[in-house]
Amino acid sequence: MERLDKHGIKYSLVTLPAKKWHWRARCGALVLYDQIPKMTTETIMFCSSTLNLAELLGLRPDLHELKKIVYFHENQLIYPVQQIKERDVQYAYNQITTR
Length: 99
Known about the structure:
The chain is α+β, with helices and mostly antiparallel strands. It has three helices and four strands, in the order ββαβαβα. It is an enzyme of class 2 (transferase).
């Protein structure tokens, strides 16, 4: 659904529910592949670093031309773990391939 901000800039939000973020980080690109409308006049894509952007771009070549702004809210490479155990590198890998 297209919206208009207070400056007259048009934008659309495509979001996933704020739950099960581990699952979203692993499969979000696959889910969003179908939900993001075909690009026509858009110029910028804003996303979170939990999205595997490289995977989404592989699935959706029409998004390649957009300028991308990625919000990195936690560095997964050095994020402290609660218990000493093997780190799940998938989340850090998503961030590395997004840069």
